[in-house]
Amino acid sequence: MTLELVSEIWSELRRYVNTTDRDDAAECMVSVLIDNNIDADEIKSAFKTDSEVRRALTTYLQNHDEDEDEEDYADDTDDDDY
Questions:
Q1: From CA 60, how far away is CA 65, in angstroms rounded?
Q2: Nearest to 30 by CA among 49, 71, 58
Q3: Is the distance from CB of 57 to CB of 40 less than 8 angstroms?
Q4: Largest CB tally within 10 Å, which of 4, 30, 69, 70?
Q5: How far is residue 60's CA from residue 57's CA, in Å, rounded to a whole number?
Q6: For a pLDDT cut of 70, what percent of the chain falls above it?
Q7: What's the whole-number mean pLDDT along residues 6-21?
Q8: Each residue of 48-82: pLDDT tens digit?
Q9: Among the residues of the chain, which ranges form H helices?
């Protein structure tokens, strides 16, 4: 499935999602796209006019960066020093 098709489906379906639930739906969609190896820049480009998806992508990337930082810190600790 192409990203353009995903964008078109989202555009059609988002009006059926309550405005209070759209951020969660966008976060779920972004997560699925990332999990299926769609590049963040491609998502950003395909959904450049959609504020919910852009916000969800930003949140996902921030959370992912924080997770990597925590993993790097855990890898840096040496149990022999204690």
A1: 9
A2: 58
A3: yes
A4: 30
A5: 5
A6: 79
A7: 95
A8: 999 999 999 999 999 988 666 555 555 555 555 54
A9: 3-13, 22-35, 40-46, 51-76
